[in-house]
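Narrative of accomplishments. A recurring question from our advisory board has been how the design workflow behaves on a single, concrete structure rather than in aggregate. To address it, we present the structure tokens for one chain from the evaluation set, followed by the sequence designed for it. No filtering or post-editing was applied between the two.
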């Protein structure tokens, strides 16, 4: 009876460790992907911001020149 209990206990521990390793490996992959996507989003945002600022600045400059 005791031998079966210890065998069952060892199997449960092995399954928990396997599940923990599987979850840990998935999180590291998704963290790298999220980090990479975050960098790309920031670069795209900065480019859009600069382009929008330049367009607005030039439009304002032209409007001011047309007013005179």
């Amino acid at each position: 009876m005791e031998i079966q209990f210890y065998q069952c206990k060892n199997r449960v521990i092995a399954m928990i460790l396997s599940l923990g390793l599987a979850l840990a490996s998935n999180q590291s992959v998704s963290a790298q992907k999220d980090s990479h996507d975050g960098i790309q989003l920031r670069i795209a945002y900065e480019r859009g911001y600069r382009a929008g600022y330049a367009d607005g600045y030039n439009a304002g400059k032209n409007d001011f020149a047309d007013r005179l």
